[in-house]
Amino acid sequence: MRTEIRFAGIGGQGSVLASTILAEAAGVAAGYEAVQTQFYEAAIRDGAAAGDIVLGDEPITFPWVLAPDYLIAQHQGAIRAHLDTVKDSGVVIADTVYAREIPETAATVYHVPLTEIADGVGIRRVANMVALATFAKASDLISYDDLERAVLDRSPGESGAKNTEALRQGYDLNLEDYLVPTPASVA
Fold first, then answer.
1. What pLDDT is recorded for position 44?
2. CATH architecture of structural domain 2-185
């Protein structure tokens, strides 16, 4: 088994952090072989940023994501840059606030209010935790408990409570409520 996952957005949204947490949870707690790579533009904020994870049940000899099984898009630029690379059998999870339009694709698309849920938690920066949990639920590759432990290990100071609250809200979503045909857009 080889599963390719890409978390993509812009700098400051936490796509790279979410991918790091997933790789740690999958590799340490869940027992997968896991490789995480990342790329981002030179801009500290608002430049394209992505974190890629390859999970497998045997050693990974090629660490790059070329055709994601899963794309978690936190920004419209991530849709523009990466949607065409997603496998036809893949899954796209896109934020309704920052990725408002989804062109036609053969992949399964969930248009989820990641940012709005984070706003409800009280801090927009935890939208990446909502996205991480939504991925975990959609993929069924990692348990909530393993993910929560990895989030807490990466949460400094008091941030663990907000991160896990956002994680729980994302995991508790009924994803079928957010399944959309493409093309799709938020009015």
1. 65
2. 3-Layer(aba) Sandwich (3.40)
